[in-house]
Amino acid sequence: MTQTNSELVRPGVSGGLADVVRARFLLKLLVRKELKVRYRGSVLGLLWSYVKPGVQFVVFYVALGVFLGLEQSPTNKGGLPNYAIYLFSGIVLINFFTEALGNASRSIVGNGGLIKKIYLPRQLFPVASVWVSAVHFFPQLMILLVACLFSGWHPSLLQLAAAVVGFIIVALLATGLGLLFGAANVYFRDSENFVDMLLMIATWASPVMYAWTMVHDKLGEAWFTVYQLNPITIAVETFHFAFWLPTTDGSAGIPPNLLSLWVPLALIISAGVLLWGQLTFRRLEGRFAQEL
Q1: Which terminus of the chain, N or C, has fewer Cβ atoms within 10 Å?
Q2: What is the pLDDT of residues 97-122, one digit of tens each?
Q3: pLDDT recorded at residue 156
Q4: Alpha-carbon distance 231 to 78, whole Å?
Q5: 128, 17 in Cβ contact below 8 A?
Q6: pLDDT digits over 31-86, tens only?
Q7: What pLDDT, on the 0 to 100 scale, is given for residue 233?
Q8: What is the pLDDT of residues 169-186, one digit of tens each?
Q9: Which parts of 151-189 fold into alpha helices (H)?
Q10: Which of 285 and 181 is assigned the larger pLDDT?
């Protein structure tokens, strides 16, 4: 039987993220492996997903909500009502992004031994890192939901849908940047340090610990527009809209045109980053085994 040239495929050339879909069973195995390895020998295991954000929340709440007066009280009318919910709804999303991008950017180098031995879709490793981070995100989300219910949470379907879209924005962005820096890290190990710096900035460059109105008042309309171009900023604001706002009287409001303009734009930007990361990854992956 003869084989035409159109059926030949050069070895080592992948189909991109389509290969991840086709190899979803391997993806499932990688996620399980990552979870087992991470908590091997740990007494608390997955409970660390509750403990770490809990400690982080307490530290930030005491420092910012109590000491700096961001929590609204009878003596501080300028603070935010239910600041604890406001803070934690932003923290859980930022934690997901920082863990997903941090681990995805190191995933190729970290699995260098496996990559040098056998061929399998290399995109599986960054994508698996994002999925593992999503597993850790779920228990934090459950804590947030319980806290919201105790605070009189009454969301609408639109607000719940906004939260889902906010998560999708972050997942797309983390996957795209994870592919980009995961590939770059094979050739330039300085990429890890750049990612660490980027993650440090991400925590403070979005309205997680402060209100968006502070940014608007300080920077003015023009620079606030630039500030809103950050997809993480929009995703955090959708979480505030979904989880924090329904626990208040609604007077605080949301940024203008959040749902009609900024959310679609953030989705487009995140999808563009994903495409950029995928194209860069496919361009560089041919020499991964040699470089590792």
Answers
A1: N
A2: 999 999 999 988 888 877 777 777 88
A3: 93
A4: 28
A5: no
A6: 888 877 776 655 566 676 667 767 767 777 777 666 666 666 555 556 678 888 89
A7: 95
A8: 999 999 999 999 998 988
A9: 157-187
A10: 181
Both tokens of 242, joined, read: 């979904």
User: In angstroms, rounded to a whole number, what is the distance separating the alpha carbons of residues 7 and 49?
Assistant: 47
- Whether residue 196 contacts residue 171, with contact meaning beta carbons closer than 8 Å, is answered with no
80 bridge partner residues: 71
Tokens describing residue 147: 């806290």
Q: What is the CA radius of gyration of the chain?
A: 21
Residue burial 147-185, b: 16+ Cβ < 10 Å; e: rest: bbeebebebeeebeebbebbbbbbbbbbbbbbbbbbbbb
Q: Which residues pair with 76 in a beta bridge?
A: 73
The token pair that represents 72 in the structure block: 């609204």
28 φ/ψ angles, rounded to the nearest 5 degrees: -60, -40
Among residues 186, 190, 206, 184, which one has the least CA distance to residue 98?
Answer: 206
Element (H, E) at 191: helix 190-204
Q: Which residues pair with 158 in a beta bridge?
A: none
Bigger pLDDT: 123 or 18? Answer: 123
Query: What six digits make up the tokens of 69?
Result: 């007066």
pTM of the complete model: 0.87
- Looking at residue 78, its pLDDT comes to 62
Q: Which amino acid is at 246?
A: P
Give the residue carrying structure tokens 């159109």. 6
**Cβ proximity of 100 and 174 under 8 Å:** yes
* Bridge partner residues of 71 (DSSP): 80
Token pair listed for 2: 């003869």
DSSP string, 77-91: TTSBTTHHHHHHHHH
